[in-house]
């Protein structure tokens, strides 16, 4: 479950889990100084996977992140928490100079799939992939990265 911080003008992401009796199992906070929003997936190992959008130039990223800095007005982020949500295992920006948006993360085996609607003409893709950018040329694109990376 994700909750938004509505007490401030800027939203943050609150991943939390409750047991079947309603008691709180864990809760955490993730975000920068501007608006952030996310969707959630749970890996069979218990890793909590968040994928969302951020307008924060100071969104927390981990060492070795694919994208260490924001590149557009709105970037995609991907974050992995340990099963207790106490430790941020991996977090990165992903996007180009435009405002990039991501859908719900999907986990299949040890792979994380993201469907993005990136209007950025410089959206990062793997070698050999092509993307012209813009909503007019949008095609289904998935970004693949092993979920177990950087455990």
Q: What keywords describe this structure?
A:
151 residues, four-stranded antiparallel β-sheet, mainly beta, disordered C terminus
Strand content: 35-45%
What is the end-to-end distance? Answer: 22 Å
Backbone shape? globular
* Class per helix and strand makeup: mainly beta
Question: Structurally, how many domains make up the residues?
Answer: 1
Integer-rounded radius of gyration? 15 Å
- Kindly state the percentage of residues in helix: under 10%
Spans of at least 5 consecutive residues with low confidence:
1-9, 135-151
Query: DSSP helix count?
Result: 0
Main sheet summary: 4 strands, antiparallel
Q: Strand tally, please?
A: 11
As laid out across the biggest beta sheet, the strand order is 4-5-6-7
What's the order of the H and E elements?
EEEEEEEEEEE
Mean pLDDT: 76
What does this structure look like?
By secondary structure, the chain is mainly β. Helices cover 0% and strands 38% of the residues. The protein has strands at 2-4, 13-18, 24-27, 36-42, 48-54, 75-81, 88-94, 101-102, 106-108, 111-117, 142-146. It has a 4-stranded antiparallel beta sheet, with no helix packed on it. Strands 8, 9, 10 and 11 form a 4-stranded antiparallel beta sheet that branches. A 3-stranded antiparallel beta sheet has the order 1-2-3, with no helix packed on it. It is globular and about 50 Å long. Residues 1-9 and 135-151 have low confidence and may be disordered.
């Amino acid at each position: 479950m994700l909750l938004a911080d509505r007490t401030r003008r800027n939203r943050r992401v609150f991943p939390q889990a409750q047991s079947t009796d309603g008691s709180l199992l864990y809760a955490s906070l993730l975000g920068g100084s501007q608006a952030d929003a996310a969707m959630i997936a749970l890996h069979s190992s218990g890793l909590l996977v968040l994928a969302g959008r951020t307008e924060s130039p100071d969104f927390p990223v981990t060492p070795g992140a694919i994208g260490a800095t924001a590149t557009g007005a709105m970037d995609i982020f991907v974050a992995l928490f340990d099963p207790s949500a106490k430790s941020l295992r991996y977090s990165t920006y992903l996007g180009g100079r435009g405002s990039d948006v991501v859908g719900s993360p999907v986990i299949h085996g040890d792979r994380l799939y993201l469907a993005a609607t990136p209007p950025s003409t410089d959206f990062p893709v793997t070698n050999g992939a092509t993307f012209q950018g813009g909503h007019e040329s949008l095609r289904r694109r998935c970004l693949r990265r092993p979920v177990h990376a950087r455990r």
